[in-house]
Structure formats: structure tokens, C-alpha cells
């Protein structure tokens, strides 16, 4: 396959959703405010399109968020489209290097020099040629993250308003953030607006007149977040092999993004010694991509070394199947590192730690499995080294789960430690992490209090009406 064939755009189907279904959760006043902004935005954008461009349709938080957010936009009458760029493995190695750098990490330590720039531009030039044919003057193009950032000038040249949305970042700049920004800046200097999850993530050269801070949101009705009874959750997890069960196929429906019912048909790929966790055992869960910044291995070590085994708790580290995330070339490497570390643990410890890859052939089915897993968890953890915004944190908050997370990035905007969960100041402090997990395993009353507070905060801060209102105001400013 040629580079040009690999670089053809994919258009993702987006179903229209009516945001009125949020009203029982957000109340009449918030609904009225949202509808006023939505009507004004629809009037402003009549005859114009909003094209979102990113690098994957499945397997990551950005893709999940776009699926629902764009659906609500369509439900409000906007002409919204979603395009996914294509690239070769070398392209995605380069963009992963940029991504890691924006988190303040060297990643694989490889170069970001002229050879990498030439290859990056070559891949995006082919994508730009195809995308340019879809863009009309006065359209808005929302470009997400580093992978398609180099399309900005071509879209501006086609007469579009261009917004670059960055979903990652570091609390403090260092040599690696500066290297990545140096690579990206030539493509972004001329954009009409920047959007970050936190103001601290923006580079110094992103002037305030073009800067917008818009945290992400979750959809409470998606397969990832819709209500599941405890019984049905256990049936799903028993069938997929994530907890003990009889393995019978569960007649438990979940809601697909087009509104139709789905059924669980696939099992997870699980690495474990002996049986899965008993259904009544307290389970500590982290759901993440297999990414060094998510520190799955650190979660494993913290649990193994600093959580009292007499509590009977099991740890379940779950991520997508590594073949299911096209833009993440490091996923298989991270999973292999975790597997090697797991194999080195003493057998009694290893029997309480389980590594799972969720099937990704059907993203809605994968989301339903994660939903059941998070709702079943005694404690949800997110021990990231760096984090743009913790979508898995927001999901756990919505499900009223007690949370232990690192005090990094957007997570500190989501959780007030001691009120909505417990934050670990230093994500590399395994003893503090283990102590926080053990606290919530021992004190179920405190765990329930934190979970209830988290649910209330998620309702106010992290649902789609707030998110869409902010984008509506951004579009109004662009004119």
C-alpha cells in the first residue's frame, strides 16, 4: 500500500441526538440556557459546516467524546462532520513523540528534526488535498491534537476559520514540552483560536485573545455511562471473564450510539494466574489506554507492595486491545512491559492482579464492558503521571465510585481531595497511592460519601450542555 493510499481520509458516521434528553438531569433552567445558545449558534452557522479532524475513530477518550458531542451538535441543527486522517507507522511514531513531549516526557527519545518534519508534512499534504475539497469558505475546521495540526494552513487557505483543540498538556514546561511546541508552532501560528482543557497547558506564544479553556464532558446516556443494575453488570463481567461467573451469554442490552440495543458477544483477553476475581471480592480498577503516561505498571507495583492482601482485594488493569488504537504505536510495548512486570511478581500477589484487553471490534460493546467494570469497582484509580483531562475520572464520578487519582493536569480541576475522592500529590509515590486505596477499601462509609459528592459534581461540571455552550460561544466569537 502506498503512502497516498494509507493517507486517505475516513469519514465517521455521526448520529443526531436531541440534548433535551438531558433535562431530567440538568433541570429546566440549564436546559433553557443551553437551548438559547444552541438556537443562536444554529442561526450563525446556517449554510456553513463544522468539520472536526482527528487521528482515530475508536480507542481513545477524544474519539469517545467527539462521538457524543458532535451528535448533540447535529441534534441542534448544525452541519457537523467528522474526518479521521490516515498515516503510516512512521508518521504515528513521530506524532506520538510530539504527544509525549507535550506531556513533558521524552517518550522514545527519538528525534524531531528535519527528516521527521518532512515525513509529517508529506503525510498531511495528501490528507490536506482530500480535505480541501470538502471545505467551503466560511466553514469552521476544528483540528484535534498534534497529529493533524499541520493541516491548519491548508484549511485557512481554503477560506475556513481554523481552531486547534489540544487535549493534552503538562503543568510545567520543560525541555520536552518546548521541543514539541517548537515542532508544532509553524503550523499553528495563524489559527483563529486555540482550545485547551487548562490554561496552564497553553504555550507562552498562544495569545489570550485567541485562547479558550473548555474542559471535556461525558454523555450520561452512552453505552459507557448509562445505568446498569448490579446484577446485569455482574452478568456482563462474568461472561467476559473479568469476574467469576458461569460464562453464560448475558441477555443484557446496552444502548448503541444510534439508539438501537446491543448485546455483549465478545470476551476480554485476560492475563491472570488462576480464576478471575470472585464476584464478591473488592476490585480496584484502572481503565486506560496502554500508555506510559497512564502508569499502569506503577499502579500494579503500588497495589502489590502497599495494599494489605488480607483485605482480599483484586486489581484489574484494563485497556483496549492494542490493535484497536491506530494512532498509538507504543501501546503494544507498554502492555508487554506490564506483562513482564506481572510475571516477575510472586505467585500469591500475581493471582490478585489481572491484566485485561477489551475487545475493540465493536466500540459500543467495549464501552458497555467498561461501564460494567467501573460500576462494579470498589475503588476506581487513575494514577497518571500526566493527564490532560481524566475522562475516566469523570466517568467514575458520574457512577458515584470512590476514586484515587494523581494530582496532575486536569484531574486537579475535577476532584477536590477529601471531598470528591483522594488525590496523591506525587504520582510516583507508591506508598501514598497504596495507602489511599487501602483507606477506601477499609472505610466503606467514607468511600460512599466521596462517591456521592463526586456524582453531584459531575452533574454540574461535566455533562454536555456546559461543553456545548462553551463551543457555541467560541463559534460566535469567530463570527
What would a concise description of this structure say?
The chain has 479 residues and is an alpha/beta fold.
Description:
The longest helix has 22 residues, at 23-44. This protein has helices at 3-6, 23-44, 61-75, 89-102, 114-132, 152-157, 175-188, 230-240, 296-306, 331-344, 347-350, 363-376, 391-398, 411-414, 430-442, 444-461, 464-478, and strands at residues 10-11, 49-54, 79-84, 140-144, 161-166, 193-196, 211-213, 253-255, 261-263, 269-271, 283-287, 314-320, 353-358, 379-382, 403-406, 422-424. The protein is built from 17 helices and 16 strands. The strands form three sheets. The protein has a seven-stranded mixed β-sheet with strand order 1-3-2-4-5-6-7. Strands 10-13-12-11-14-15-16 form a seven-stranded mixed β-sheet, sandwiched between helices. A two-stranded antiparallel ribbon has the order 8-9. α6 links the parallel β4 and β5 (161-166). α4 crosses α7, α8 crosses α12 and α13 (391-398) packs across α16. The two termini are 42 Å apart. With 479 residues, the protein is of the alpha/beta class. The radius of gyration is 22 Å and the shape is globular.
Low-confidence stretches: 1-5
Total DSSP E strands: 16
Structural class, please? alpha/beta
Count of alpha/pi helices: 17
Mean pLDDT: 94
Strand order of the largest sheet: 1-3-2-4-5-6-7
Shape annotation: globular
What separation lies between the terminal Cα atoms?
Answer: 42 Å
Amino acid at each position: 500500500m502506498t503512502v497516498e493510499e494509507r493517507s486517505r481520509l475516513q469519514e465517521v458516521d455521526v448520529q443526531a441526538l436531541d440534548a433535551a434528553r438531558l433535562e431530567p438531569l440538568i433541570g429546566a433552567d440549564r436546559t433553557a440556557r443551553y437551548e438559547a445558545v444552541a438556537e443562536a449558534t444554529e442561526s450563525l452557522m446556517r449554510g456553513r459546516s463544522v468539520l472536526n479532524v482527528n487521528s482515530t475513530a475508536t480507542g481513545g477518550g477524544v474519539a469517545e467524546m467527539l462521538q457524543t458531542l458532535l451528535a448533540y451538535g447535529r441534534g441542534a441543527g448544525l452541519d457537523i462532520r467528522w474526518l479521521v486522517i490516515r498515516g503510516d507507522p512512521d508518521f504515528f511514531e513521530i506524532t506520538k513523540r510530539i504527544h509525549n513531549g507535550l506531556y513533558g516526557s521524552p517518550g522514545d527519545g527519538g528525534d524531531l528534526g528535519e527528516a521527521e518534519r518532512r515525513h509529517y508534512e508529506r503525510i498531511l499534504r495528501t490528507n490536506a488535498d482530500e480535505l480541501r475539497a470538502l471545505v467551503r469558505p466560511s466553514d469552521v475546521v476544528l483540528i484535534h491534537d498534534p497529529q493533524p495540526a499541520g493541516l491548519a494552513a491548508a484549511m485557512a487557505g481554503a477560506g475556513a476559520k481554523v481552531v486547534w483543540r489540544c487535549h493534552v498538556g503538562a503543568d510545567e514546561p520543560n525541555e520536552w514540552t518546548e521541543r514539541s511546541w517548537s515542532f508544532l508552532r509553524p503550523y499553528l501560528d495563524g489559527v483563529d483560536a486555540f482550545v485547551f482543557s487548562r490554561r496552564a497547558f497553553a504555550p507562552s506564544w498562544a495569545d489570550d485573545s485567541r485562547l479558550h479553556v473548555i474542559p471535556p464532558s461525558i454523555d450520561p446516556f452512552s453505552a459507557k455511562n448509562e445505568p446498569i443494575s448490579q446484577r446485569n453488570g455482574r452478568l456482563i463481567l462474568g461472561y467476559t471473564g473479568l469476574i467469576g461467573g458461569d460464562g453464560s451469554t448475558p441477555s443484557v442490552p446496552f444502548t448503541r450510539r444510534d439508539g438501537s440495543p446491543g448485546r455483549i458477544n465478545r470476551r476480554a483477553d485476560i492475563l491472570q494466574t488462576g480464576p478471575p476475581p470472585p464476584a464478591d471480592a473488592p476490585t480496584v480498577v484502572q481503565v486506560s489506554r496502554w500508555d506510559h503516561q497512564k502508569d499502569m505498571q506503577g499502579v500494579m507495583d503500588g497495589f502489590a507492595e502497599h495494599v494489605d492482601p488480607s483485605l482480599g482485594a483484586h486489581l484489574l488493569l484494563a485497556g483496549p486491545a492494542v490493535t484497536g488504537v491506530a494512532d498509538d504505536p507504543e501501546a503494544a510495548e507498554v502492555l508487554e512491559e506490564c506483562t513482564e512486570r506481572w510475571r516477575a511478581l510472586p505467585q500469591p500477589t500475581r493471582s490478585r492482579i489481572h491484566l485485561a484487553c477489551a475487545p475493540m471490534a465493536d466500540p459500543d460493546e467495549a464501552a458497555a464492558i467498561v461501564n460494567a467494570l467501573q460500576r462494579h469497582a470498589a475503588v476506581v484509580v487513575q494514577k497518571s503521571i500526566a493527564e490532560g483531562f481524566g475522562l475516566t475520572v469523570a466517568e467514575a464520578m458520574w457512577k458515584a465510585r470512590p476514586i484515587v487519582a494523581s494530582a496532575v493536569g486536569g484531574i486537579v480541576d475535577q476532584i477536590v481531595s477529601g471531598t470528591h475522592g483522594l488525590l496523591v500529590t506525587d504520582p510516583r509515590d507508591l506508598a501514598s497511592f497504596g495507602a489511599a486505596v487501602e483507606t477506601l477499601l477499609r472505610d466503606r462509609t467514607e468511600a460512599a460519601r466521596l462517591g456521592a459528592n463526586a456524582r453531584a459534581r459531575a452533574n454540574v461540571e461535566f455533562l454536555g450542555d456546559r461543553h456545548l455552550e462553551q463551543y457555541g460561544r467560541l463559534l460566535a466569537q469567530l463570527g
